[in-house]
Give the backbone structure.
Amino acid sequence: MKTPAGKTAAGEKTAAKKATTKKAAATKAGTKKAGATSVTTKKAIKKKPVAVPEKATADVKGASGVKTVAAKPPAAESRTALVRRARRINRELAEVFPYAHPELDFDNPFQLVVATVLSAQTTDLRVNQTTPALFAKYPTPEDLAAANPEEVEEILRPTGFFRAKTKSVMGLSKALVENYGGEVPGRLEELVKLPGVGRKTAFVVLGNAFGRPGITVDTHFQRLVRRWQWTEQTDPDKIEAEIGALFPKSDWTDLSHHVIWHGRRICHARKPACGACPIAPLCPAYGEGETDPEKAKKLLKYEKGGFPGQRLNPPKSYLDAGGKPAPPLGAG
């Protein structure tokens, strides 16, 4: 049976119309999919890793190189990875602060324990300005234990909380005389029994007067180890235990100096100098502070116009073999 020519043309026209409609729908779907891909791409761009200095020094001389790192370490960072990252940070800081040491002036364990007690709620600089007069008048535990409290208070007034500090240093001096023959004990259990001496002070004394490893958990240390995600603890004793487990015991004292110096000079509490930080590629908190190298450089804490870490008047125990002060960071 033959189909009329008119009917055949109409059928062909209808089929062509359906094909065009189907093609338009496919094109529209493709455009919508492309748009969704574009949105996804934009979101991906927003999460692009932060560019940080590959190996900056404290004076920003090495901030020209750039290395892309994740803004935070992997959420599932393994114990092994954490240990490696923590130890590498310590090695990097050792290069930046090779002469890190206690910043309290002292000639013997007695002077160090007294100076450390006085350093609470004040600066080491203020303590160093105060202790010469104190030790000149009361050079031994026997002298300080028998002193007139009002005279000691007057000397210690610039350090703040001078009445409480007078009570502590005179009390610990009396305890040294009565219980230890006027000598500072070299054991943690005995040191923490002295008035005004806690674990932090005890480890400062043990590590720097007796050469016995210890971790000094001061405010700088607490802030930085949490900022670096080495621990989530807030209790000093728990921080000490967790950080101690990341490092060999022989590293504890120097580690404390490196972290504290970095906290005082570069990684400040309110505005870290991220753009001048030597460990920027390893820091999960990079970006909390100023990232522009030149602006960050202005945030560094210099000492009397010198380099960060410079020691103008080191204690006698800090002299080199030739009897001269060790050179400041960046010298030579």
Q: What stands out?
A: The chain has a mean pLDDT of 78. The longest helix spans residues 5-46. The longest strand covers residues 50-53.
